[in-house]
Amino acid sequence: MSDQKFDVIFIGAGPAGYVGAIRAAQLGLKVACVDAFTGKDGKQALGGTCLNVGCIPSKALLDSSKQFYNIAHNLPVHGITVDGAKVDLATFIGRKDKIVKQFTGGIGQLFKANKVTAFYGMGKLLKGNQVEITAQDGGKQTISATNVVLASGSVPIELPFAKFDGKHVVDNAGALDFTEVPKRLGVIGAGVIGLELGSVWRRLGAEVTVLEAMPDFLGAADADIAKIAFKEFTKLGLNIKMGAKLSKAEVKKDGVHLVYADKDGEQSLVVDKLLVAVGRRAYTDGLLAEDTGVKLDERGRIVVDEHCHTGVDGVWAIGDAVRGPMLAHKGSEEGVAVAEWIAGKAGHVNFDTIPWVIYTEPEIAWAGKTEKQLKDEGVPYKVGTFPFAAIGRAVAMNEAFGQVKMLAHAETDRILGVHMVGPGVSELIAECVVAMEFKGSSEDLARIVHAHPTLSEAVHEAALSVDKRAIHKGN
């Protein structure tokens, strides 16, 4: 028998689960949320990977490392010289931990304010929409609901020949808590996590070598944007080797000995720390009893339809554990949509306008189709580009690198994709997402007045450039 009965139970309190739980409670439903994440203080830490060891802590370290890097590399241009700057790593990491605790605690307060009941432990779906909760001490209890939403998230993929030991070979969580700046840092994977955390430690003085098995840098991004980004990362000092496939990682007294193969054959490399960031997989370990009827696909993700329903009555799944990009904001919007569907309202998630952001220096952001995708699909299109080098605000900030690239349909002018690399593009992409969501055209953005001088003028000029009428560059 179940101890307690709810309208809806969310298993997982990451960006998908906790947001969905709050929205469901706002709609008048009786809501529970089960999560087992433990913080550094040994207590429940709501927020999942994103708030605890992902999005938020990595951005805190990126910002702190940028401040230090600017002292030596950017402030002299402004006529400001600082001698003897150094990093107190304990304070550096401590600031990140304080921010994480602030936000995880904030979710707890939001749960209380919205009357969401939080359970601390591992949640497992049983037949009949019951959820078994296993506490840290092994004790068990069972609760039930009319609806159960699986939001179990994802975990780092571990390589069989480079297993995580938490000290020499680490995942993203380990790379957030180094006790000293490694002299030599190896990074396996030139994706979002590898580039962001590689940038953090490079700015603090580490020699960073990134090994990427794929031949093309940032294959998911537009090729022109990826090319510019690669050039800027090289300037930062990231040694990125493409087409480099790791085959061995052995921990010895003098470091981690790597063996990899590239176009020139077998190579070797010794590093002090190795960050393995080759991607993430849906985390469904122990989530489902055998008789629930919920199915997994060939990649271990929970199978759902376009409304995030599993096909089992009252069972839904959202976030990293299902199809689609593993992005916090995608999971959050699915959580909101499912809560609204359960409450009999109209939920909405448009996968065609989900923005992607890489918070490196420069930042990279995009939404919609790449030029290659449009070519492959045979869609007629026009291209408009504009460099930040011609933007007064970017030059004044000493960050005049990168560009905005806009793709519009050749016949209807509807915006099909926008791709950016440069200063502040994580914020600039929002304007383009709004325009795309409302089926806007490049003409729409071209005729909207943008404040001067701002970085957003690059979006304006790129829209003008689609019809070869940009003002501040040759067309």
UniProtKB/TrEMBL annotation:
Residues 6-335 form the FAD/NAD(P)-binding domain. The keyword Transferase does not apply. Binds 1 FAD per subunit. Its EC number is 1.8.1.4. Residues 354-463 form the Pyridine nucleotide-disulphide oxidoreductase dimerisation domain. Gene3D superfamilies: 3.30.390.30, FAD/NAD(P)-binding domain (3.50.50.60). It catalyses: N(6)-[(R)-dihydrolipoyl]-L-lysyl-[protein] + NAD(+) = N(6)-[(R)-lipoyl]-L-lysyl-[protein] + NADH + H(+). Its cofactor is FAD. Keywords: Cytoplasm, Disulfide bond, FAD, Flavoprotein, NAD, Oxidoreductase, Redox-active center. Belongs to the class-I pyridine nucleotide-disulfide oxidoreductase family. The active site is a redox-active disulfide bond. This is Dihydrolipoyl dehydrogenase. The lineage of its organism: Bacteria, Pseudomonadati, Pseudomonadota, Gammaproteobacteria, Lysobacterales. The gene is lpdA.
